[in-house]
Specification:
Length: 225
């Protein structure tokens, strides 16, 4: 059985990482246009680097939870394509062999001048030089609002080719990810949503499992023969 899974911030919530739209979410404390847009980076690169330095530190201190581990185990038993909107590395640290980071990753730095990528230092600043071209143009390798998500060709192919599509811990507020269930469903996949509560796209799913991911995901993975 070919399975495609999309994860969102909710799968890392029980690892202690803030989600975006909860009452204590990241977008309650920061304006998206200030810390998650190209314009915000041009306006105040130091603020943006500090925002991602804090998130990089938080992600490094966090541990994968049972949901991350269950998906890593699933990859050993089924043809699984794992897509995440998350920029933490908890899927990799749980043992998932191939993670598609459609919104980028805190683990890499990107040179806005020459396009070079390298392992992100713990703390980045406007004075961080690119190791390839030496320009002081380092930015977090994060897809900001208004930018194109990464790996979309591979993602559309996985959605069109899978028998089962699961979305875990995402509110369905941000496209194109919010449209993945509809697309996979149109191509014949069975769609299941694992979330604490209803999302903006719950109607696009055939099945729903409600509860915290660290409890629901291991049970769901175990139910897949
Ligand atoms: N278990 C399962 N689901 C959970 C848990 C949990 N323990 N805690 C929260 N959730 C659910 C919430 O109910 C919500 O539906 O996870 C979802 C988190 O939603 P958001 O905070 O909007 O995060 P996400 O959907 O990943 O955001 C998508 O928006 O801001 C951009 O680029 C950012 O990748 C992000 C994108």
């Amino acid at each position: 059985m070919r399975i495609t899974v999309l994860t969102g911030a909710g799968i890392s919530a029980e690892s202690g990482l803030a989600t975006f739209r909860a009452s204590d979410g990241l977008w309650e404390e920061h304006r998206i246009e200030d810390v998650a847009s190209p314009e915000g980076f041009v306006r105040d690169p130091d603020l943006v680097h500090r925002f991602y330095n804090d998130r990089r530190k938080g992600a490094a201190a966090a541990q994968p939870n049972a949901a991350h581990r269950a998906l890593a185990e699933l990859a050993g038993r089924h043809d699984l394509t794992l897509i995440t909107q998350n920029v933490d590395d908890l899927h990799e640290r749980a043992g998932s062999p191939d993670v598609i980071h459609m919104h980028g990753s805190l683990s890499t730095a990107l040179c806005a001048s020459c396009g070079h990528r390298w392992p992100a230092p713990a703390e980045m600043s406007p004075q961080t030089p690119c190791p390839s071209c030496a320009a002081l143009a380092a930015r977090p390798d994060i897809v900001w609002f208004g930018e194109m998500p990464y790996h979309m060709e591979r993602i559309w192919a996985a959605l069109e080719d899978c028998d089962l599509f699961a979305a875990i811990g995402t509110s369905g507020n941000v496209y194109p990810a919010a449209g993945f269930a509809q697309h996979a469903g149109r191509m014949g996949a069975n769609c299941i949503e694992l979330n604490l509560q209803n999302s903006a796209t719950s109607r696009d799913f055939d099945h729903h499992i409600r509860g915290p991911a660290s409890e629901t995901v291991p049970g769901w993975v175990a139910s897949l023969s």
